[in-house]
Amino acid sequence: MNWFSTAADLCIKGGFFMIPLFIVALTALVLIIERLIYLRENRIDGDKFQFELRTALKDDDLDQAVVLGARTKGVIGRVIEEGLMRVKAGETDIEAATEKAILTEMMSMEKSRGWMVTLSQVAPLLGILGTVWGLVVAFIAIEQTASTDPRYLAGGIYQALITTVAGLLIAIPIIIIQEHVRKETNHILSWLDLYLAEIKEWMARRNATAEVPRDVKG
């Protein structure tokens, strides 16, 4: 008997509660794939982007900085492009210029994470519920048959424990991947904060330079 037929046999013996556990596992798999694709689409060379952005700002080439944001994929590119476009249009505060864009992107970044956390909590609870239910059924059957054979009880217990094992096998990978997604999301936000700090510093220098003639004239 190979492992596949063994697993299938255990799933059948697990009873009704294996159905919601399967639904949880399938839903989690879809969410995980979606999040991993999203993170892949938002992965950039952070050091290279910082160098190119710093070079453009050092040369006061706002147009080049906008182009850099436009050609950079993902959250960082969209936020930087929109923020610099608003700066180009006269906005004097980069944080205000990017506030709406960041809030919009945050909604996309947090998408599915809440559901992943919920599923990682629901899976073991469903497993435990299935086990408790299985034990109840096993003891009722023993009472009705008046059997004193310990093998009969052991068989009922091991079948009841299948759902607990299944719940844990589903929850553990979800928790690990959800933590990976959280760290990657925070990594993206850290890079974004760094780039916005670069732009803010450049705007402060530009404003200070623009005010010098007024001071001299005064």
C-alpha-based Rg, rounded = 28 Å
Order of helix and strand elements from N to C terminus: HHHHHHHH
Average pLDDT over all residues = 85
Largest sheet, strands/sense/barrel = none
Number of helices: 8
- Which runs of at least 5 residues are low in confidence (pLDDT < 50)? none
The dominant shape is: rod-shaped
Helix content: over 70%
Percentage of β-strand residues: under 5%
User: Helix- and strand-based class?
Assistant: mainly alpha
What does this structure look like?
With 218 residues, this protein is mostly helical. It has one domain. The protein contains 8 helices and no strands. The protein has helices at 3-14, 18-41, 46-58, 62-71, 74-88, 94-110, 113-145, 150-217. The model has no long low-confidence stretch (mean pLDDT 85).
Can you tag this structure with a few keywords?
mainly alpha, 8 helices
Short description:
The protein has eight helices and no strands. The protein has 218 residues and is mainly alpha-helical.
List the helices and strands and how they pair.
Elements lengths: L2 H12 L3 H24 L4 H13 L3 H10 L2 H15 L5 H17 L2 H33 L4 H68 L1
Helix pairs in contact: 1-8, 2-7, 2-8, 3-4, 3-8, 4-5, 5-6, 5-8, 6-8, 7-8
